[in-house]
Amino acid sequence: MENIYNLIMNLIGSASELGILLDCLLIVVESIIPPLPLGLFVTILFVNYGVLIGFFLSWIFTIIGCVISFYLFQTVFKGLVDKYVRKNNFANKFISLIDNIKFSDLVIIISIPFTPAFLVNIGAGISKLSIKKFLPAIILGKISLVLFWGLVGTNLIESLKNPISIIKVVILVLITYIISKIASKKFNIN
């Protein structure tokens, strides 16, 4: 992991002004292509541009990537899923769970740092989930996720050994959950 980090840091550093664009583009692509490490790209932005700019750029471009992925699966693959996959009883039950997920539950799933974003995007895209529910959930959920990867991700191994870091993540997720409950009631998002 350290070798990959050094390689990407050298690539971004050598690109000078284009380095920030490259990192932001990689964050967008990560929402569509699963093996790319979001935590690494967010950490690079935090290290190179500070907490405020690093957070803002990571948060915005993560949201953009998730929305692109959502629309890609909603427009290109939803018809195939409805035609072939929904015939399978197990798959249909799984997709129905996504169809009827509560807003606050969706926000929590998104805000957990180790939830694969591409699976959430695919599931939301092939289900009957509306963009009116998906977009606010992404906007809220990605706040704690980006903060986790930016602040804790800069030294992941030490953070996992230190229970205080884990407690901070749990508190971030809890705050996100509370905000999602308030937003759900205020804007009638379920």
Order of helices and strands: HHHHHHHHH
The N- and C-terminal alpha carbons lie at a distance of: 40 Å
Question: What's the domain count?
Answer: 1
How many strand elements?
Answer: 0
The 3D shape can be described as globular
Structural class: mainly alpha
Radius of gyration: 17 Å
| Average pLDDT rating | 82
* Tally of alpha and pi helices: 9
Largest sheet: none
- Percentage of residues in helical conformation: over 70%
Which ranges are low-confidence, i.e. pLDDT below 50, for 5 or more consecutive residues? none
Features:
mainly alpha, 9 helices, 190 residues, 83% helix
Structural commentary:
This protein is an all-alpha fold and 190 residues long. Helix content is 83%, strand content 0%. The protein has 9 helices and no strands. Helix 3 packs antiparallel against helix 7 (131-152).
List the topology elements.
Blueprint: H1 2-14, H2 17-30, H3 38-84, H4 89-99, H5 103-111, H6 117-126, H7 131-152, H8 156-161, H9 163-187
In short:
83% of the residues lie in helices and 0% in strands.
